[in-house]
Design goal:
The complex is a heterodimer of chains A (about 300) and B (about 425). In chain A, helix 3 packs across helix 4. A six-stranded mixed beta sheet of chain A has the order 6-7-8-3-9-10, with helices on both faces. A four-stranded antiparallel beta sheet of chain A has the order 2-1-4-5, covered by helices on one side. Chain A starts with a strand and ends with a helix. Chain A has eleven helices and 14 strands. With about 300 residues, chain A is an alpha/beta fold. With about 425 residues, chain B is mainly alpha-helical. Chain B folds into two domains: about 290 residues, no CATH class; about 90 residues, D-Maltodextrin-Binding Protein, domain 2. Chain B has a four-stranded mixed beta sheet, with helices on both faces. The chains are: A alpha/beta (about 300), B mainly alpha (about 425). Chains A and B meet through helix 2 and helix 3 of A and helix 2 and helix 9 of B.
Chain lengths: ~300, ~425
Amino acid sequence: MSGLLELEGLTRRYGTLTALDSLSFSVPTGQVVGFLGPNGAGKTTTMRAVFGLTDLDAGMVRWNGAPVGQAERRRFGYMPEERGLYPAMRVAEQLEYLGRLHGMSAIDAQAATTTWLERLGIAERADSKVDALSHGNQQRVQLVAALLHGPEVLILDEPLAGLDPAGIDAIGGVLAEQARSGCCVLFSSHQLDQVEDLCESVTIIDHGRLVVTGRVDDLARSGPRRLVVRVEGDRDASWARGTAGVTISEVDGGAARLVLDPSVESESVLRAAMAAGRVTEFVFERRRLSEVFREALK
Amino acid sequence: MRGGLIAAVLAVVVIVRVWGRRRRRTTGQRQTHGGLGPFTSDVGLVAAREMRERFRGKIFRVGTLLILAVIAAAIVIPTLDKGKPEPQRVGLVGALSAPLRAAVVSSAKSVGTTVHFVSVADAEAAHADLRSGRVDLAIVEGRELVVNKPIGSTDISTTAQFVDAVSKNLGIVEAVEAAHLTAAQSSELAGARALPVHSLQPGAVKGATHTTSLIGLVLIFVMLSQYNTWILIGVMEEKSSRVIEVLLAAVRPIQLLTGKVLGIGLVAFVQASAIVVFALVLAKSVGSDLLHGTAPVVLASTLVWLVLGYAFYCWVYAAAGSLAERQDQVQSLAFPLSLPIIFGYIMALTAAGSASPSSFFKVLAYLPPTAPFAMPVLVGLGKVTWWEFLASAVISIVCTVGVARLATGIYRRAILRTGGRVKLRDVLTRAAG
């Protein structure tokens, strides 16, 4: 399975507020793409636009070069930010119903429901009503609803919110597996460390506009060099404050995270640190996603 | 009238088929659901879920049992009363000749009762017995009939009919005696039978038709109120639980809405049909006169107008449900929508009891919001022709198509707007803009 989900010039205004401002980016298959941005950046509106759940003032969503319509959306999977299931309906029955709405036969929907409930460890709750499940299990059921019909595109809005580490691992594992099998996976999250672990690529938006998009490795390697330096006896990293071309990003328990100007050699930083005391740590560090995020939104 | 009903049903079927074909042509989707198009298939899936959930609900089961119990009581109780008429007690002052006595007994038999004679000393004692209710009628010296209260021309009680028959029959016996007829001539007169009267239209049992009309009215009122409220709450719950986003990611709003109103409508039709069949079978088995005269036609028109009334109102209630997000908002939205239903119901109840409905009421029979109540009553009163019935049905169907288009537009725009009750003005403004 290969393809490309393209979002072109998406624009959505609510009165004077512009939620999406000519937003364009694409999501390739075979990758888990993290969709990041501060609250109100337009992430949910973008995801809803893919499913025609918000009226666009301009722009278009394409799948494999063709405009996305109802027939294409039936082959997509969606997990909305505000979870949505019939509270009084039994889990398996509800999932089979949703699978059939996505074009599955009754037998296929039944088989897929059984498989996925077992896979996510909630098979014994198949006959429970949804509102009798815990938050985490409801989240799992909601994920199954998005996965059941073997979607070509998977759009998940905050799928990890409120989950315990076991739940995050379970859902994260499923997303990675879906991407490996050729699915196009886009998910939003505020938990940047988890996004960094799960995603090959990220797209960051703010005020409805694209800020940064690219592979996580490339973004981590890009930008100025970073050093973590620890000098014995200097918990405030005061030695670094007077060093030309060096900016202190963060000081944590005596370990100073430094951002070096392009003109500064790392050897000169090492010499300055050694002059201040015994150097117990001197490590080159990649940009973390949280730093990419913060710097992108400056 | 039956021809009109058949034509109305055929018209509905044709419109649904043409509309379905047009939808399939405009959507141009590939068929992934066996022999059915995705539109039809998805609508069917949504409708099937609605039916399954409603049939399982306690409200449906208990409600159906309650309605059946009320219908059974309405049918059986009058027949119990009719099956055991109390004997008529006749006080005799003085002697009553054998022919006159036979005439009194025969009069009682003709109105389905029996007679019990009581000897009374004199007229004064007879008057006292009449006042105390010990006797229903006093015959003084075989020539004078006395009752306690005057009997009106519209009084159809057993006693009134009995007194009327006695009065006529004793008059005939007296006339025969006065004419000094021969025994053969008297016998000939006694065996006289009234000439049969043939009517051009089927005979009506007025009381039975009236009762059937009332049962039909109550049925339409209860069902329209109940099932439209289900639609309103069902739409609101899908919105408030946010399942609507998951559903609309797979199907169109029009499919979801059509499936919902179709599913709930089928539940309503199944329940109404079951009630009507139950009423007919029970009425036949206990010998009720509910099946006599035009009553079956009234029942059939009740079912037709239940369908047409539901079809008209369901879209309006669905659009209202899409504006709400909480139960308390549902109450404030449902009240104004129920006003035309209550108005039509009260007007129809009033008109059903009168012999000649007003012109205003006849106008109501052509307005889609009130026609479901007014038209069956006119049918029961025999005040409408088949083409007038059909014209009203066509007006209702045409208006329903318009209302459905407007309602689906409102639904589509309002159902995904959360964070409080959506104002209709905002939705319509955006629809126009």
